[in-house]
Every structure is written in structure tokens, then in C-alpha cells.
Design brief:
By secondary structure, this protein is an alpha+beta fold. It folds into three domains: 178 residues, no CATH class; 143 residues, no CATH class; 134 residues. Helices cover 26% and strands 28% of the residues. The strands form six sheets. An eight-stranded antiparallel β-sheet has the order 18-19-22-27-26-25-24-23, covered by helices on one side. Strands 1-9-10-11-12 form a five-stranded antiparallel β-sheet, with no helix packed on it. A hairpin with a 4-residue loop joins strand 7 and strand 8. Helix 5 packs antiparallel against helix 7. The termini are far apart. The relative contact order is 0.11.
């Protein structure tokens, strides 16, 4: 089988080949789209005045799919698909085109793949894989039966463990044809498990202005510098006695703290699958190897799909090291000696991407209400998603708002966190933003960034868990997180946007 031969080639070539492929893919573009499942036999009519396709029988379609990847009788299989005008094979040819581009299929009919795509779709994107991905995401096309397993075996030429994730027998809430390889193998971006924490006095590697994720639970304060998390994108830790997974998607700008104890009573720890979906990382739990959406905390492909499990958000804030330390002088901070050999210089991993307006992978569902990589603070309250542009929050400092039946206040009194890791790269990492319930109060800035005044003139302290008045009242925190606008909108196209109501 061709997939096996490809796997042998990659094994013989060694890790160097995979690293080169990953770097090449990162510079060339990648993928991510949206929505439902595979398997139904309806087919969309594509282009203008396309004849109604006559679908191949399922058993024949599966055979043809494997022949197209394997080589023998390739021309006859291709002709069979084109004669039937079976638009389900558009997904197959997109996968084959990409497999050829990243070296999985050495010279195997690339131009034929492109011609087939254009014939079946009526579109003329040529070899521009990103345009095909963005076009496909907006269709309701489905792939042939058995596509998910076939795709897993194809990508198994990079890492055999991919085959365990992509199986037709797994329940799914997403279109598996829209899952894309992110340039690394399973755990190629290694998670940090119960990482060593040190005192501020021992953290001489940190610059005052550089960004950190701050988590505070039950009086246990911890800082996770982005210069380290950029290389690991996941920290499974215990903070204040609570299991925490800090899931960080560098591509969509979202660092989210999840409670490791899920609603089913099980504690889950997570790693990086090597796959992406709408330019968002798909993490996997080590207990069942189910794929999860990093941005929503929900299982999307695997054993846990349909279980009703969803991870609970915990409080996290992005701020500068100096500001976090000022607020929490007894904080612990991540030790730079992680046990991995990485260049943990500020901005070394993604500084160029953060500073650029461009995306690394295609995303079809976007909105021009904001720039793609505008930083927003994302909330879901009563199931209603809402995005607050960080630039607006910083300008106003205190925003009194209402989502559904919930009155809330969003506080961003310390400005943005902008860093310059080298003379040619400068980027904004977001800002220190927190949201709280506000009851019937209306707030305005206090005399310093850590205080608010209500409409009675009463002083309230901004803490990690609540707003606390000097008169003993308390208003609980509402947990949210930062993200790029495109990353949030691609999953929540019905989101409210502050300032646009």
C-alpha cells in the first residue's frame, strides 16, 4: 500500500525530514474550516448550472478512493470519478493535492488532482490549496464513505498515531475533511506536566515588560511566561489544589484555563494532537485519546463525543511580568529549565507571526468588522457569545454592560502589553482584562488600576476571584479569555461585538 511505502520512506529519512516539512508548512500556509459530520450521501451542486451528479455506489467509491492514493489503475479510477461527476471526491482530491505538496505522495498526479478539482467544482483555484480549503468550508459537500479512516491512513505516513484519531467509527461533531495537519507529529509540541515553579528571585530570565499568563486559585498564584508557553502550548498543573490545563493556541491567540476535573467526575490531562481545525489546535486527552476543541473545551472526535462533557473555565489573565509581580509578590513562576531543549528567547517561536497581519493557515468563516488578528476579550454568558475589542477596553478602562439577563463589568485599567523581542519584531500580546458580575452597580475607574468606584462612591478592590467592596460586598468573576478576532468568529459567527450593537 502506498501509505506504507511513504511511511517507510519517512522513517528512513529520519526526524530531519519531518522538521523540514513542518517548517515548510508553517511558511506555506495550512488549514482550518468548520461544522458537521461525514457520511450522508447527499451531494451539493457546485458552480453554475452543474449537472446533477450520479454518485458511485459506496463500495466502489471506497475502492476508488484508495486506488487514487495508491497509484495502480490511477487513470481508470480518475476517469470513473469524472464520468460520474461524483462531487464527494472533491474532498479526496484536496487531500491528495496537499499530500503531494508536503511530500507524502511523490509526484503522484498533482496536475491531475487539480484538473479533477476544477472539473468537479467548476472553480479555478489551480494549485492554491488555501483557496480550495476556504471555498470548500462554505459548501455543504460531503466526502465518500470511509473518508476519515482513509485520511488517517494517508496522514499516518507522517505519524502512525494519526490513524488512531481519524477513524470512521469515532463519533464526531465536526467535518473531518476540514481537519488539517499542523506541521508536527502527535506531541511534537510537548505539553508541560506539573512543571517546576520557582520564586521571582530565581526568575532572572524574565524581562519586566514581557507577557505572562497569570492564574490564581485558592491563594496559589502562578505565572506562565509566553516565551516558554509559545513552545509548549499546554501546561497540565495543579493550582491551589485544583487540576488545571492551560491550553494555549498560538495561532488564534487564545490562552484558556480549564478545570481538569470534568463534569463526568474524571480528571483529564491534555496534549497536542498535531492537528488543526479552523486554525485552532485540536488537543487530545490522554485518558481516551478523544480530540477536543481548544477554544470551546468540548470533545469533537472520539469516544467522549456525545457524552455531554464540557470543560469548565477557570480564571486566567494575560499581563506583563512586572504588573503580575506587583499584584502578587508571593507568586511562583515557571522555571525556564523545563527539561526540553528549546530557544526560550522572547518571541523566538512566534514573534514574527504575532507581529504580522497574515494568518498561517486558511480560515473560511471570517468577518471584516475587525481586523483578523485584532485582539478581543471573549465571553460566553447564558450561552451568548460576545467579543470586546481590547483596544476599546483599554481606552475606556471600565465597561458596564449586559449580556442576556446578566449585568457585568469588564475591567482593563493597565493598558496593553506590547513587546519588542528584537529590533525588527514588535507585537501586541493583548492586555490585562477581567470581567465580573456587577449586580445593580455601575462602576467607574478608581484611583489606581486595582480599584473601582461604584455610583455611591464606594471603593471596590479588583481581585482574581471577585470584586470586593470595602463594605464587605462581593461580586464574582466571570471567566473569559483573549483571542484573535478571526479565531473567535470562526467558531462563533453569531457572536455579539461590543460597540456594534
Amino acid at each position: 500500500m502506498k501509505v506504507q511505502r511513504v511511511r517507510n520512506i519517512l522513517i528512513l529519512a529520519g526526524m530531519a525530514v519531518l522538521i523540514v516539512l513542518g517548517i515548510w508548512l508553517a511558511s506555506a500556509g495550512g488549514s482550518e474550516p468548520i461544522s458537521d459530520e461525514t457520511g450522508t450521501e447527499s451531494a451539493a451542486v457546485v458552480g453554475d448550472e452543474q449537472p446533477t451528479p450520479e454518485l458511485l455506489p459506496d463500495s466502489q467509491a471506497q475502492q476508488v478512493m484508495y486506488i487514487l492514493a495508491n497509484g495502480p489503475n490511477y487513470e481508470a479510477a480518475l476517469e470513473t470519478v469524472l464520468e460520474a461527476q461524483d462531487t464527494r471526491f472533491i474532498a479526496v482530491f484536496i487531500e491528495l493535492m496537499r499530500a503531494n505538496q508536503i511530500g507524502l505522495l511523490q509526484g503522484a498526479g498533482q496536475q491531475a488532482h487539480i484538473r479533477a478539482l476544477e472539473t468537479l467544482s467548476g472553480e479555478t483555484f489551480g494549485g492554491n490549496w488555501a483557496e480550495w480549503i476556504e471555498w470548500y468550508g462554505a459548501t455543504d459537500l460531503v466526502p465518500p464513505p470511509g473518508f476519515t479512516t482513509w485520511k488517517g491512513q494517508l496522514l499516518g505516513g507522517i505519524d502512525p498515531r494519526f490513524e488512531d484519531f481519524l477513524l470512521d467509527g469515532h463519533p464526531s461533531t465536526i467535518r473531518t475533511e476540514e481537519i488539517q495537519w499542523g506541521g508536527v507529529m502527535v506531541d511534537g509540541i510537548p505539553a508541560l506536566d506539573n512543571p517546576t515553579m520557582i520564586s521571582p528571585d530565581e526568575a532572572g530570565y524574565l524581562e519586566p515588560e514581557e507577557p505572562v499568563f497569570g492564574i490564581s486559585i485558592n491563594g496559589d498564584h502562578r505565572a506562565y511566561p509566553l516565551r516558554i508557553l509559545d513552545w509548549h502550548e499546554m501546561a497540565n498543573d495543579v493550582v491551589g489544589g485544583v487540576p488545571v490545563s492551560l491550553a494555549y493556541c498560538t495561532l488564534c491567540g487564545a490562552g484558556i484555563a480549564y478545570h481538569g476535573l470534568a463534569s463526568d467526575g474524571e480528571v483529564y490531562t491534555f496534549g497536542s494532537s498535531g492537528f488543526l481545525f479552523r486554525s485552532n489546535k485540536l488537543m487530545y486527552d490522554r485518558q481516551t485519546r478523544t480530540l477536543w476543541n481548544q477554544l470551546t473545551g468540548e470533545p469533537v472526535l472520539g469516544e467522549l463525543v456525545g457524552s455531554g462533557i464540557k470543560l469548565e473555565l477557570l480564571p486566567v489573565v494575560l499581563t506583563s511580568w512586572a504588573d503580575w509581580l506587583e499584584q502578587h509578590p508571593d507568586t511562583k513562576v515557571l522555571d525556564i529549565s523545563t527539561g526540553y531543549s528549546r530557544p526560550y528567547d522572547l518571541g523566538a517561536a512566534y514573534g514574527g507571526y504575532f507581529a504580522s497581519e497574515d494568518l498561517m493557515f486558511p480560515v473560511w468563516q471570517r468577518s471584516d468588522l475587525l481586523e483578523d488578528k485584532a485582539r478581543i476579550y471573549a465571553l460566553q454568558v447564558e450561552g451568548i457569545p460576545k467579543a470586546y475589542p481590547v483596544a476599546n477596553l483599554i481606552e475606556e478602562q471600565v465597561v458596564n454592560d449586559r449580556i442576556g439577563g446578566t449585568n457585568l463589568v469588564v475591567v482593563a485599567a493597565r493598558g496593553d502589553v506590547t513587546v519588542e523581542p528584537n529590533p525588527i519584531v514588535r507585537y501586541n500580546a493583548g492586555g490585562e482584562v477581567r470581567a465580573f458580575q456587577r449586580g445593580e452597580q455601575t462602576f467607574r475607574p478608581g484611583t489606581d488600576p486595582d480599584t473601582l468606584l461604584d455610583d455611591r462612591g464606594v471603593v471596590w478592590l479588583v481581585t482574581e476571584s471577585a470584586l470586593v467592596s470595602l463594605e464587605g460586598e462581593s461580586l464574582a468573576r466571570i471567566n473569559g479569555h483573549l483571542a484573535y478576532w478571526f479565531g473567535w468568529f470562526s467558531f462563533f459567527p453569531n457572536t455579539l461585538l461590543y460597540g456594534q450593537e
